[in-house]
Design goal:
The complex is a heterodimer.
Chain A lengths: L24 H13 L9 H9 L3 H6 L2 H15 L5 H14 L5
Helix pairs in contact in A: 1-4, 2-4
Chain B lengths: L29 H16 L5 H16 L2 H11 L1 H9 L1 H6 L9 E6 L4 E6 L8 H4 L9 H6 L4 H7 L9 E6 L4 E6 L11 H7 L2 H5 L9
Parallel strand pairs in B: 1-4, 2-3
Classes of the chains: A mainly alpha, B alpha/beta.
Chain lengths: 105, 218
């Protein structure tokens, strides 16, 4: 069975950037949103389901996106599967935000 | 992934591994930024969570990162042989004594010895016991660490400045969504006289992952 693109173990790769950088506010907020959606009160998904979304998003997207960028389409897809949102309302909202020029003051 | 129960103390006692926010932190893809905002607005509008809950979730994460509970767990294990046995036999029960729960089926503590050194990784993603170790450092989630540490752990550890003698066997533990690990490092010889509180201060985050040793180690 060919291995999936996320299965990095044992593959050749370059040097490790051993000095970690702190998360940006955007990354923290994405993380916080994921924590809420999977917390005991909401429990919309488990971490294995969430991981599956990233493992099936396609290699090009996986490699192009940063760690937390991958979480966004992964959460959106899961929430649509669970009937919390629809893809149509998400697209509509994205169009509205683009039209009003980004983050609301 | 209900592993961030709020047992942090809110302080920001960053250890020596602390580094400031990168000035050149990569910017977010515009389409992803748009999707994130739309998703967040929709969830707020539907009452799935409130702005206050989102902010408290961020604060909880920062508290976990500021007070790494794993340091206290290790300090107690060094000072109390019974606790050490419990920690190695039943990790979830041992950390429950500190009010912590990772909310996972399995959590295991792997103990270093004079000829055994343990390292943890998640080759498939970034599984990490954040309830004990705070947020994973950026390199833990990187392609480079995930790829290489299982194949050439010795040279990877050298990149972190940890050169182990050839007679030390390196054991690499690959985490999953349901099973996570923490390393119980060896107590430095010089730390023999320290009490539990002082011991917790020499335990580094990196020593709990296995890419470093406690402060004062030979």
């Amino acid at each position: 069975m060919p291995r999936n693109y996320h299965d990095y173990g044992g593959e050749p790769a370059g040097p490790i950037e051993v000095h970690p950088h702190e998360l940006t506010f955007w990354e923290r907020r994405v993380d916080a949103m994921q924590q809420l959606l999977s917390d005991p009160r909401r429990r919309f998904f488990r971490s294995d389901e969430f991981r599956l979304m990233r493992e099936t998003m396609g290699e090009a997207e996986y490699e192009r996106m940063s760690y937390y960028e991958r979480w966004v389409p992964a959460m959106a897809r899961l929430l649509a599967e669970k009937g919390i949102i629809t893809h149509a309302e998400l697209s509509k909202r994205m169009a509205e935000i683009a039209e009003r020029g980004g983050e609301r003051a | 992934m209900h592993d961030d129960h709020n047992h942090g103390q809110g302080g920001h006692e960053y250890g020596p591994e602390h580094h400031p926010v990168q000035a050149d932190a990569p910017s977010v893809e515009p389409q992803i930024a748009l999707m994130e905002q739309a998703l967040r607005e929709l969830l707020l509008k539907k009452g799935i969570f409130t702005t206050g809950e989102l902010h408290r979730s961020i604060e909880r994460m920062e508290a976990l990162d500021g007070a790494i509970l794993g340091k206290k767990v290790v300090a107690r294990a060094w000072n109390d042989p019974e606790y050490r046995s419990l920690l190695l036999d039943d990790g979830p029960r041992a950390i429950a004594e500190f009010g912590a729960s990772l909310g996972l089926p399995e959590f295991r503590v792997v103990e270093n010895a004079p000829t055994i050194h343990n390292v943890i990784v998640c080759t498939l993603c970034s599984c990490y016991p954040r309830g004990l170790l705070g947020l994973p450092p950026s390199w833990y989630k990187s392609k480079e660490y995930r790829s290489r540490v299982v194949r050439e752990p010795r040279s990877v550890l050298e990149e972190f400045g940890l050169a182990l003698p050839p007679e030390v066997e390196i054991r690499v533990h690959d985490s999953t969504a349901d099973l996570r690990f923490m390393v119980l490092p060896m107590r430095p010889v010089e730390a023999a006289h320290l009490d539990e509180e002082a011991l917790a201060e020499i335990v580094t985050r990196d020593s709990l992952i296995g890419v470093g040793l406690p402060l004062g180690s030979q």
